[in-house]
Every structure is written in structure tokens, then in C-alpha cells.
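hiii so my PI (J.) wants the whole complex modelled not just the main chain, which honestly fair. so below is everything: two entries, each one labled with what it is. i double checked the lines twice but i was tired so who knows lol
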Amino acid sequence: MSELPQYKKKDFVSDQEVRWCPGCGDYAILSSVQMAMTKIGVRREDVCVVSGIGCSSRFPYYMNTYGMHTIHGRAAAIASGLKAYNPSLSVWVVSGDGDSLAIGGNHFIHTIRRNIDINYLMFNNEIYGLTKGQYSPTSKEGQITKSSPYGVIDHPFQPASLALGAEATFYARTIDTDPKHIQEMMIAAANHKGISVVEVMQNCVIFNHDVHAPYTARATRDEHTIRLVHGKPMIFGSEMNKGVRLVGLSPEIVTIGENGVTEADILVHDAHAKEDTLAHFLSRFTYPDHPVPIGVFRDVDKKTYDDAIDEQIAQVTKKKGKGTMEQLVHSGDTWEVK
Amino acid sequence: MSEQELDHVVIRFSGDSGDGMQLTGTQFSNTSALMGNDLATFPDYPSEIRAPQGTVAGVSGFQINIGSTEILTPGDQPDMLVAMNPAALKANLGILREGGTILVNGESFDEKGLKKAGYTETPLGTPGLEKFKVISVPMDSLLLEALKDIELDSKSKLRCKNFFALGMTYYMYNRTSDATLEWIDTKFGKKLPLVAEANKLALKTGFNYADNTHATAAQFKIAPASITAGTYRQINGNQATAWGLMQAAESADLPLFLGSYPITPATDILHELSKFKHHGVKTFQAEDEIAGICTAIGASFGGALATTTTSGPGVALKGEAMGLAVIMELPLVVVNVQRGGPSTGLPTKTEQSDLLQAMYGRNGESPMPIVAASRPSDCYEMAYHAAKIALEHMTPVMLLTDGYIANGAEPWRIPDNLKEAFPTIKHKRITTAKTDGEAFQVYKRDEDLVRDWAIPGVPGYEHRVGGLEKDELTGNVSHDPINHEKMTHTRQAKVDKIADFIPKQEVEGEMTGDVLVLSWGGTYGSTHSAVKAMQKDGKKVSLAHMRFIYPMPSNMNEIFKGFKKIFIPELNNGQLKFLVDANFDVPTFGYHKIQGLYFTVSELVTAINREIETL
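here's the output for the full assembly
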């Protein structure tokens, strides 16, 4: 195998015109993913981007890699088949909150459960964009949309809680206003062996503008997000003096230096904890009651499906020898007719 | 004891779902196959795993037709019924041949057993059974006595009853017990030596009891069948489908990938393929039917021979994904083991009612070739052909089998040379880098309208495919009206062209005559036997049995022209007839049976005769 080429971002830019709405959060994500691709140590021909249906799902057309733009909700299943067949590929799923959590909900949880080594990007804008503005499984209760003129009566999913409940071995969240952070999360996802789910808080400029603004806009985001770093205390705020303290099993937001609180009182993030208790705990943080955690919630090792399927084949082949049809058709009871 | 020679005999083993009748029937058929008989089997069981014990709903049957002549169906009417309880007698009495033999476990006809079967008094000894020869044997007490020295509880001992009954039938039909004794040893010998001993003793006791009591007036002999010389094995349809797919993978030098979700009666294909890791087969038990086909599509994009196996309800769920494979022009084999419908329908019963679903069950103009297996062993060949068409023409292909041939077994003559019988499949998978710097043109086609199969991992061919309409060359998304129309026509033309690559339709019999019987799929055994019998009677009847259904072979019209009537028997409401009527101007006459059962030969002979009489 020849040396890995020194890729530039343009190597991952296809010749197709990008057709998302002006101001759409997807532009920043695309650009960050293309940049991240130059840094993950994978050959371009080994990258395959698979999507379902929705605005986000146009993504493969803009990536100069192998790609499939498939059918609504099924990207995870199609990507799973591709990866299970050829584990040497770097397989990326690009999906949205509707594609992943509504029509594709079943594939979402089972793909995670199998811990197949796929990088799963879910752009969460809490709305259906391509069908022009209906509520999604992550839309907030009471939200007025075209299909909920009197307010949404569904209770939303917390994608992080759902993914962790399905035994995700990697979960990260990022925001579409911070390309550097997106890149970091993409690289972390690529480096994780097993399913890597990355939720991108993404803005739909047309149908749900500024839904994430309090925790994604430059002016306010430091105040309303915790940047999770493994081994570091959960300190946040524009002055970096706020933190999360554990009281019993509940979080308490405290200010360092007030009421005797010191840095030592602040909960320390452990992305590699064997149990997912802490990651779950963080998945319940929602604006405006809590700061929104971004970064890697969980990153643990577990046997991957794609490794297991190949190992089983190797084991059985070692034991029985490589089978041929000639042997097989003559195996067991046969008889001669003369 | 005298011996009587039979050219064939039909036996039906019948009992409660938990009585082991499928096993008993399988043992009888294995033994008969090894003794050189031709045979066909028909497992007939309820969809409940254990329906209420002793009831008619819970009766499980296994019918077998063995002969010294060519046997292609499990037989119209059993000559002998083995009924392990009153319900089994009640369920099968109507189909038994007059004068046939009934072997019953007399002790099961107690108050409790009769009540469960819905009898108010015992039918044994009543006029209703006068036209049969009834052998009532107190199987429970004989068995308990014979096994009294084995340290097992009575319940376990009584579970050997099926082997007692099998032993009796082995004696009556002059079978050897060796293969079954060996099977019992392999199955239970090491782990459960007492169970093995009890079952073996039960088999021997039954055999000796039949001998000592002269249970039947004569011992019947069925000589080995005079069939084509060669090496044979028994094979059922689902097993043959699995092996045929593996054969195709070997012939194409590609790994086989199966994405599947369990569904009756197709699940055994998943079971079978999951055994063959050492053949490099990858099986993926998906979370649902849709994921079953979608994982297969993913693997196909990656360069595998990919397949998904299911039954009608599963095909309904896979419709959108099949359309995706059509528009992406990826090779894929979709296997539909048909069962009674609509909806959940009759899961364990057979039907041919998914032909039009296979033709039209997708949105948009979405042509997809269809092939259909004609008998259990033919599933091997047709699975190979389905894969061959898929790979050589870059298209999804539907393989139709049905519950009848999927579960039915028959002797299969193993080809002397597999490589000659199933030659190399040439496909257009690209494995070397593209170095000219030009963009890969995804939908550039060869003279047969087939595109190249560029797969991830190969440098220079990076490209995107998807469900949106694509430009006819570059593969870029295109909403251009003329391009869409052109692509629609091209996809159709590509499938139509496959007619040039499939065998011409064969005709059994003269090329002209009164009636052409046009059948397809799993009904071959019945239609072939009926036509053959009528030809022997001097009737001007020929058979065209279709295995390549869409596109149809190029000589259909030529064949149709030679006959006054085209008689189309189907286990549906006339679906092939609909396709023939839509495409040809010929006088078609349908014959439809939608009972979850196969055609009997005699009903077809009667129906065809009626067509001749009304000419």
C-alpha cells in the first residue's frame, strides 16, 4: 500500500453546486467535515457517505468520495450492510432528526446496539425542512409548525438519551456555529472504533430559525454550553466561573468563588467511564434549565459488529477449512443410481 | 405373509403439533431416498407452534409419495394415513383414498382425546370408516411395556410413540431401519443415551409388532426408481435456494451477503446460509424487513453478491428499497417464498399470488426481472439464474418460490460437473484504479445497456448514486424532463434485453395441439404429471412451464400460435393469465385454486379435459 496522500480540503469537494438555503447551518458542517477528512488518516477512495432523505441527506453529493443518497430513514441500514460487507471502508451516515428518529428510528437504535463501526452524523434542527416545516420528534412541546398550528402535543426525544439507551459507545454533540469544534468531533468520531453518533445542533434558517441560538450564537453560547473535556471539571460561562455540582443524583449549577464553592466541588467529566451513568446524566441537560453540554459525552471500547462477523468467519474457516460447493453438494447422505 | 409390488404409495403421517410428525415423515423420506425410490414430500403444519393439544387446529401432517417411477408431486390422495390421535383422523379422513389403510393409536381414542377432537363417540368401528382398512394399535401400553427397563419417566417414554409408528410403517412398506437408527444415535447418542436407546427400541418394537401381528395382509414393496443414473441426494426447496445462491457466488467469484428478517416460510434460507461461514457467506439478521433489503443494497454497492430472503408481506415492506436498487442499477436477488395472502394470510400454506406484486409492487416505472423455481431441486438452478441475471445486467431480480416447494423435498441428481452446470458468471465489478483523471461516468452503458459496477475502495471511481433521477451519463442529479423520460425508457429497455440472454421457452409434447397448458413456478409437478397422463391417453395437450417470467422468453408467441386454447392453471386468481392477456392476443383460459393447497393431478386432468370437450 502506497503512502497516504497529503489531502487538502478541495480533494473532498465535489463538482456539484451546493443547494442548501442561504444561511443554512449545513454549509458550516459540510466545510468542517471536508476539512476533517484531510486529518483522519483515511484514503479518499475508502470513504463512503450514506444518507437518507431530508435536507441533510443531500450531503453525499457534495463530498468527492463514494456516496449513496438513499431512501427515507434507511441510511443506517444501508451503511450497516456496506460496512459489514467491507469493514475496511470508512463509512459515514448523514441524517437529520426526522430521518433518524422518526421514519428511521428502528434502524437508528439497532445500528447503535450492534456497535458497527460507522460514523453517524445527525443534524438536529428540530423541524422537517424538506417537506416544508412540520414538527419533528425533537420539536419542543407547544411549538407552532405547519402541522401543529395549535402547538405540538408530542413529547420530544432527547437524541442523546435515546442513543445512550441503545448502548451507544460514542456520543458527541456539536454546534453548527463552531467549525473548529465540529472538526474536532468529526475526528474524534473517526478515531472511535464502533458506532460514533455525533449530534449537530443545526439551524434551519427558513422553518425554525434560531431555535438553538441561545447556546449556539457566538454572543451567548459560552454562557449556555458546557464544553465537555475528558478528565476536566465541567466549568463553563463567559467568565468560566460556573460549574456543575452533584447534589445527590441531581445537578446543581454553582458559581466558583461564591458560597464557598471551589473548583474541587465541580463534577469531573469521564468520557471513558465503563457505565454510561454520567453520559445519561448529561443527556438530560436541556436549555434553559441547564447549560447544554457539547463535546464527547461517551467514548468507550466494545467489540464491533464488523470485527465480530469477520472473526466468526475466520474461526469457522480455520476449523472446517474453506468450503466449496463441490464438497457441499456431496456432503451428508448421497446415493448412486446406476 | 405375502408381498405385493406397488409402483408408488402415498403415506400421510399425522398427529399433534408436538408429536414429531415432521421428523417421522422426514425419516421415512430419507430412508426411501437411500433405498432408491423417487419421492416428493409435503410438510403441512399449522402456523401455531403448539396449537391446543389434541385439537384439529393443532394437527401437523407430513405427506410423502414414494415410487419406483418418476414422482413429481406428494400425491393427490394418501393410500395410508398414520393418525396419532382422533384429531389427526378427523382432519385427514376426507382426503384419504377409498380402500386406504389407517393406522391409529387406539389408546388415544379415549374420552378426553375424542372430546378434544370434537367427536361425541369413537369413530373406530363405525360405518364412516368401513371403506378403509383400520389398524388400531394400543401404542401407549405396548411402548411402556417394551421400554419398562429403561430408566425414563412414562412421559418421556410416550414421546417415542412416533418412532413406534414409524417402525410399523417401515415393516409394512419393506423399509430398512438402519438409516433411522443411525440418525437417532447421532442426534441423541452422546448427550442423551437413554433417550437414544428408548427411541431405537420403540422403532424396533413397532417394526416387530407389525411383523408378528401381520398388521397388513401383505407387505408392500416399492422397487428403486428407474431414474437417470448418477449421484443423488435429497434436497428441499429452501435448502436448494440457499445453496443455489452460494453456487452463484462461487461461480461469480464474489462473497455472498444476505440481509434478512425471519418470516415463514422463508426463514430456513436464513438458517441454512448462516451455517456457511467457511464459504465466506455473511448473514445479517436485520431489525426488520426493510433493513434486510437495505443492508443487502449496501453490500451490493460495496461489491458483494447481495440477497434478501422473505415472503409476500416482507416484499410489501421492501418495495421502496427495491425501487432504489432499480434506479441505482445495483445487482440484488430478492427471494420471495410465497404464501397465502393478503396481509398475514396463511403463513404456512402455499399460494402463487405474489406474481403481480413482483411485477408491479413498486412506485414509478420500476421494471425488475422475475424468475420462478418449478420444484424443490430447481430452486438451486433458479437461484443461480437470478443471481446471474442480477450480476450480468446490474439489476435487482425477484426469485419466486413458494411454501410448497420450499418445504417439499425430493431426490436431486447432483450435476456431474458443477462448473459446467453452473458456469462462471461474468460481472462488471471494477477492481483496479482509474488513472486517466477523468470523472467516472456512472450511467455509461455497454451494448447491453449495462453500467459498470465501481465499488468503494477503488481509487478514481469516487461517485454518488441515489434514489433521485440521474443524468444519463454522469449520474449527477437531474430533473430534466427529457432525461427522465430517456432514463425510464433505458431502464425498461435494459430489462427487456435480458430476453436475449435467457433460455427459449421449452414445450413438453407436440408444438401444435388442442390445449397448451401454461404453468409457472411451483406447480410444475402437478401440471407435468397431468399433461403426461393425458398425452399417454392420446390427448393433444402440451405443457409450457415457465421459469423465466419477466422478461418472458422470446418465443412465447410462436408457441401460443400452435394451440387452440391456452390453459393457465395457477394457485391465484389468474395473475399469469393477466400478464399473457396484456401482452398477447391469444385465447387464454384460467383455472384457479386458492385454498393454500397444491394442485392434485386428477383435478387438472378433469379441468383440461373440460377444455378439450368445449373446443
